[in-house]
């Protein structure tokens, strides 16, 4: 299994709740072709001086190649483009889970 982690900032022009609702709607289109599960998690600031207004999108993929394929084509690639255009600064990390 491999986990594709997409870190996303909240766009400043909408509320956290509006951004989260939009993201949840967009994530419904992502699936299949080696993607086993998609989750959206809100990132919380651990210290009082670091409040957070961002999310992690976690895609559990069958293997590393399925994860790489997800960001190269299809709905996930389109979402990354939209996130960039909206100023949400997506950052992608691929974590191999050997267990």
In short:
It contains three helices and four strands, in the order βαββααβ. It has 99 residues and is α+β, with helices and mostly antiparallel strands. The chain has a single domain, classed as 2-Layer Sandwich (Alpha-Beta Plaits), CATH 3.30.70.100.
Provide key terms for this protein.
alpha+beta; globular; 33% helix; four-stranded antiparallel beta sheet; 3 helices; Alpha-Beta Plaits; 4 strands; 99 residues
Q: How do the strands and helices of this protein lay out in sequence?
A:
Elements lengths: L1 E8 L6 H12 L7 E9 L10 E8 L2 H9 L1 H12 L5 E6 L3
Antiparallel strand pairs: 1-3, 1-4, 2-3
Architecture overview:
By secondary structure, this protein is α+β, with helices and mostly antiparallel strands. The protein has a single domain, classed as 2-Layer Sandwich (Alpha-Beta Plaits). Helix content is about 35%, strand content about 30%. The protein has a 4-stranded antiparallel β-sheet. The model has no long low-confidence stretch (mean pLDDT about 90).
Distance between the termini: 8 Å
Question: Strand-and-helix sequence, N→C?
Answer: EHEEHHE
The amount of helix comes to 25-40%
Just give the CATH class: Alpha Beta
What class, by secondary structure content? alpha+beta
- Beta-strand percentage? 25-35%
Going across the major beta sheet, what is the strand order? 2-3-1-4
Rg estimate, integer Å? 14 Å
Q: What spatial form do the alpha-carbon principal axes imply? A: globular
Q: Quickly give the CATH architecture.
A: 2-Layer Sandwich
Number of domain units: 1
List the total number of helices.
Answer: 3
CATH fold node name: Alpha-Beta Plaits
């Amino acid at each position: 299994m491999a986990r594709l982690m997409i870190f996303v900032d909240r766009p400043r022009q909408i509320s956290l709740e509006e951004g989260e609702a939009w993201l949840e709607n967009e994530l419904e289109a992502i699936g299949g072709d080696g993607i086993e599960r998609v989750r959206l998690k809100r990132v919380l600031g651990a210290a009082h001086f670091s409040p957070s207004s961002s999310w992690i999108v976690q895609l559990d993929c069958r293997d590393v190649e399925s994860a790489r394929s997800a960001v190269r084509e299809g709905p996930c690639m389109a979402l990354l483009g939209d996130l960039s255009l909206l100023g949400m600064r997506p950052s992608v990390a691929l974590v191999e889970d050997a267990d």
